[in-house]
Amino acid sequence: MSPAAQGQFIKIAFEAPGQKSIRLEAFGKTVPCYPSGGKTECLAAVPAGFAPGEQTLKILSDAGLIGEAKVRIEESKFPEETLALTQEKKDLMKPSEKRKEEVKIIRAGLGAETPERQWKGKFIKPVKGKTESLFGEKRILDGKRMEGYYHKGQDIGAETGTPIHAANAGRVVIARKFIEEGNMVALDHGHGVVSIYMHCSAIAVKEGQAVKKGQEVGKVGSTGISNSPHVHFGVYIHDTPTDPLFWLENSP
User: Fold this and answer.
1) Where in the chain is the domain with CATH 2.70.70.10?
2) Per-residue pLDDT tens over the stretch 9-60
3) What is the pLDDT of residue 252?
4) What is the pLDDT of residue 251?
5) Within 10 Å of residue 165's Cβ, how many Cβ atoms?
6) Which of 65, 87, 94, 252 sits most deeply, having the most CB atoms within 10 A of its CB?
7) Residues of the chain where predicted confidence (pLDDT) is lower than 50
8) Strands 23-26 and 29-32
């Protein structure tokens, strides 16, 4: 199997006739596998903080262990960024009961699991604009590193009101406003793959709606914890964030 770097993903496709409840144990998680093109397909994200080195992947079913594979995980060089926030924006980071409920909704959306694969080909850049903060960046706020935090997507700067397009076909699982994320849209693409679009000035879709690749889902804004108009674009696999740029160049 080809090596994979931190923040990327791996794919395994194989035949498993007669096996039930097939799943993949990889990178500290056990995730479901799905039928695809006459075979069984498994996708797994390599977490940004996962230790480099050779890893053993285990394929399991109700019958137990049915196969193993090895993959070498390579280190990614993630930059560091100094973040400047107004006190008004910092106040949005304070814990609250409302925020706890929001996190539950977001986690459920990012963890969506549907057996129908809806995406086709490579993902597309959701908005034409300037690449700003990158995936994996560590943040420094008020002179202190934000421990345990890293940027889980790619920021693309553009003028307020610029259309944001679906990176691929999917179903809307989130289309609402949150304290930190602002107006947010999340699309379930099937097989545990979910894309997100945050800080929108407006939302153009509704939850449960099917969307096509390139369809408008919202408009660029600066809602939530944001300093300037941009879209935070993220792609998750089984609730683990991956580098969106990798999806623009590779189609599993």
Assistant:
1) 80-249
2) 999 999 988 899 999 999 999 999 999 888 999 999 999 999 999 999 999 9
3) 82
4) 81
5) 21
6) 252
7) none
8) antiparallel
CATH no. for 80-249:
2.70.70.10
Q: Rounded CA gap, 236 and 230, in Å?
A: 19
pLDDT, position 148: 84
Give the rounded distance of the alpha carbon of 50 from its chain centre. 16
**What dotted CATH number matches 4-74?**
2.60.40.10
| pLDDT for 193 | 98
CA distance 127 to 164: 5
| Cα–Cα dist 222/207, whole Å | 21
* CB contact at 8 A, 189 and 166: no
Residue type, 43: L
Which SS3 state, helix, strand or coil, does residue 221 take?
strand
Q: Which two tokens stand for residue 42?
A: 């498994």
Structure tokens at 220: 């660029």
What token pair was written down for 79? 């930059």
Report residue 13 as tokens.
């496709």
Q: What residues does CATH 2.60.40.10 cover in the chain?
A: 4-74
Tokens of 210: 């099917």
Residues pairing with 74 in the sheet: 5
SS3 110: helix
Tell me how far apart the alpha carbons of residues 245 and 154 are, in angstroms, rounded to a whole number. 8
- Which secondary structure element, helix H or strand E, spans residue 87, and what is its range? helix 87-91
**Average pLDDT over the chain, rounded to whole?**
96
The first and second tokens of residue 166, run together, are 């679906």
Q: What is the dihedral of CA 152, 7, 114, 207, to 10 degrees?
A: 20
